[in-house]
Amino acid sequence: MTAPLAVSVNRDRLPEAGPAAPFTFPPIAKSTLENGMRVWTVRHTQVPLVSFMLLVRRGSAADPRGKEGLAAMTADMLDEGSLGRSSIEMHEALARIGAQFDTDIGPDATLASVTALSRVADRALGLVADIVARPSLTEADFARVRQLRLHRLTQLRDNPAAVADRIFMRLLYGSHPYAHTPTGNEAALQAMTIDDVRAFHANEIRPSAATLVAVGDCEHDAIVRLAREAFDGWRGASAEAEGEDTALPAPARLTVVPRRGAPQSELRIGHVAVARSTPDYHALVAGNMVLGGQFVSRMNLNLREHRGFTYGARTAFDFRRLAGPFALQVSVQTSATAEAIKEAIGEIDGARGSRPITSDELALGVAALTRGYARNFETAEQIARSVMQLALYDLPDDYFAEFVPRIEAVTPADAARVLAAHVHPERLATLIVGDLDVVGPGLLELGFGEPVVLPADTF
Amino acid sequence: MKLTFTKHTLANGLDVLLHEDHACPIVAVNVWYHVGSKNETPGRTGFAHLFEHLMFEGSQHHDRGYFQPLQGAGATLNGSTNADRTNYWEVVPSNALELALWMESDRMGFLLPALTQKKFANQRDVVLNERRQNYENRPYGLAGMAMLASLFPPAHPYHWATIGEIADLHAARLDDVHAFFRRYYHPANASISLAGDIDPEQALALVAAYFEPIDAGDGVARVAVDAALRGETRILLEDRVELPRLYISWLTPAMFAEGDADLDLAADLLANGKTSRLYRRLVFDERIATDVSASQNSREVGGFMQITATAAPGHALPELERAILEELAKVAAGGPTGDEIERGRVQAESQFVFRLQTVGGFGGKSDQLNAYNVFLGDPGYFDRDLERYYAVTADSLRAAVARWLNPSTRVTLSVVPRQRLDLAIPDSTRAAVS
Question: Is B275 in Cβ contact with A21 (below 8 Å)?
Fold first, then answer.
């Protein structure tokens, strides 16, 4: 080793960061197959892996009324066998090539993803195609899978976070397509048939709504060729989805789901806010960093680091194709429930007006979002997930290149304006899943009147 | 397959591991202290983890929150404590490497002057809330600590869970914090690894400049203990759950010891994924369970294998137990099929490639280098670790299952809905957990 470089350590002040290393998002190569499916690829050769994500822009919001849970049930049925192979044989085939397979469902999309060694990319993609385009969808598999989902719903009744998430969406959205979580409800699952699943697959899971994203040690043309073969025979257009926003309810200010003896209260505080397409997206993301979007946010510093009420508190805008919720998620010790709600609403109120976001606070939030931006694109899976966002929300190819400058351009006045426009303290609905006997008396001083009390299995 | 690195040891005993990877302009800084809940004593449990929280509350030359300057530089950061070790990491843009080293070295060398009673009391409240959120208020959340308490005798350091007992957390004092820091948090008991966009020579110079002035501290003797189960123990917990769940555990070899890799693969072929034997039988064919899983939990001074299954409505745990023990007996007698062994090999290869994808965070390359260095003194163990899985044969796996997963030396835990003791394994004793 040569002589050590001179480093002078000065503990009187923190070292300044040097100039940032340049980072550019890799280019996306795009093709469209004859059946309408889009094939987007990004080359990423650090590790001999390839990550495929097949996105279909139909999720639980496409569930017909009375059939809540159908999209998730369909997603669950996809890997239950194909072309004469049973469910277990499909999974043996995946295991034999060491592939990691997963399906995921959200309100706006269904996703099938697989990551595998590059040398078995063709076989991995063939299996994804069999799973998504040619599932067997048999009656017997349906009966078994539905039963498992019903058991899962039963178990969720004891999980306070899951209870809070399900009931909160219903309170906020009423009869809107976002009113139910993808799991649906027991009544709808009981009434569902395999024909519902077949119809959903035939009408919604179609190439016109699908984008295949491939990231890894692979050539675009080769992936297109493989995709053309693998998805051969998959045709048809999805039914036109995405109706207008249904009228939203005006939820009660305060709702309690009793959970006797609970050591903590699971809280949700929020309202329906704004869609992903909003021009205020970047300013809202930056503003939320200060309010509740990071460890050093006002919300977490107050509820965790100052008062010790919780293990962690965060606020988020859940940006979706239609207006998604803005919400605080936190679990607080039972004895501090009313005080935590008061403090939380105070922080929301403060950030949008009475204690405006300062330029120092905003600078920290902006730096946290921008300076480490490159680390979001380290693995094939991360890149694939990012590219998928473009397909899901109709974002331009230069979205990633533009992200940093657009976030950096946000001013404290912008943050104040968008928070005032999209966050409305007088509309905030508060949900508590907790011990009503203990927390009840303290709630009156919040000024919301008597809480509405709902049982855990309300929806 | 290789995970390349260089290793250097500073004059004060601090191991420095460097891995160069310029794919992304980021650097992972990862510090391991060889201390976990197994270094605690009965009556003082939960301390190693509580201490980890205090490492984020500021040090002498930066007596404010640890997160702010690092997040302002674009870092992501976290820490974790388990039975065997405590780790701290940040992933920073490569231009902020020196900041991360400044921060890590300040809390390694100068934590105590900044540690006040107020910070201590606040973080104890936070930890008590972490315990409520992740254990007390979560379905089946107390099962893990009940199992550990029965598997390992009271004096064994794996007898208690890392989160600790409530009473012990309340009993902790600021003095304990000082003593704990002096005993365990110093260069001779630590290892730092840097992975990513670095110039190794410059990185080493920076690490030496920031860390070498810190006093070495006293070495820490390795914890050495043994545990054995002499028979079968049956315990039960009533919980706020809808469906009863069965846990069966055995004491098994430690991390990297002979039989560990065999049991890892045995767990997969028994109960992980839709191709596994127990999933097929319990969930797919007989439908007496809603889920099943298994893991070989290998730790530094011992391990335990655990099989978990949740009963479907209308089924009781003895029915699940019978089916599980039958399938286990089949593996112990006949071993795995050739196809099962082949799948295990390919999956191991894939898993090891997956582990090379990221430089930082939990399980990233910097974390793996520290794990091999701290537990084995050999950061270059990555490829030999994979070899352990390639070396598993049908016969070695069968023998490991027959030897270690003996039905007459195990702990069986039933977690049942309140007032539904009829669903539990008969003759179970109520477990005492808070």
Answer: no
Surface of A (395-414) touching B: CB under 8 A: none
- Give the C-alpha separation, B268 to B265, whole Å: 5
Q: Check if B61 contacts A (Cβ < 8 Å).
A: yes
Q: Which residues of B touch A159 (CB under 8 A)?
A: 138-139
DSSP notation for B307-338? EEEEEPTT--HHHHHHHHHHHHHHHHHH---H
Give the neighbor-by-neighbor strand order of the sheet with A324-333.
Answer: A310-317, A324-333, A264-274, A429-434, A254-258, A452-453
Q: What is the CATH number of domain A254-453?
A: 3.30.830.10
Residues of A with CB below 8 A from B353's CB? 47-49, 117
Q: How far apart are CA A26 and CA A376, in angstroms?
A: 13
Distance CA A27, CA A208 (A): 23
Domains of chain B as residue ranges with CATH: 6-211 (3.30.830.10), 232-430 (3.30.830.10)
pLDDT digits (tens, 9 = 90+) for A141-183: 999 999 999 999 999 999 999 999 999 999 999 999 999 999 9
Which residue in the block uniquely carries the two structure tokens 């639980």? Answer: A60
Helix (H) or strand (E) holding A384: helix A380-393
- Contact yes or no for A267/A430 (Cβ under 8 A): yes
Nearest by CB to residue A19, choosing from B95, B123, B240, is B95
Domains A29-230 and A254-453 share a fold: yes
**0.85 surpassed by complex ipTM:** yes
A 148-177 residues inside an 8 A Cβ radius of B? 148, 151-152, 154-155, 157-160
Domain regions of chain A by residue span: 29-230, 254-453
- CB distance B379 to B369 below 8 Å: yes
B212 touches chain A (CB under 8 A): no
What are A207-240's pLDDT values in tens digits?
Answer: 999 999 999 998 999 999 999 999 999 998 877 7
Q: Is the pTM of this model over 0.90?
A: yes
Q: Is B9 on the interface with A (CB under 8 A)?
A: no
Q: Which tokens is B258 given? A: 């002979």
Which CATH number is A29-230 given? Answer: 3.30.830.10
Among A1, A10, A11, the strongest candidate for a mutation testing the B interface, having the largest count of B CBs within 10 A, is A11
Q: Residue type at B203?
A: A
Please indicate if any CB of chain A lies within 8 Å of the CB of B64. Answer: no
Establish if B312 touches chain A: CB-CB under 8 angstroms.
yes
Please tell me the total number of residues recorded for chain A in this structure.
459
Q: Per DSSP, what are the bridge partners of residue B339?
A: none
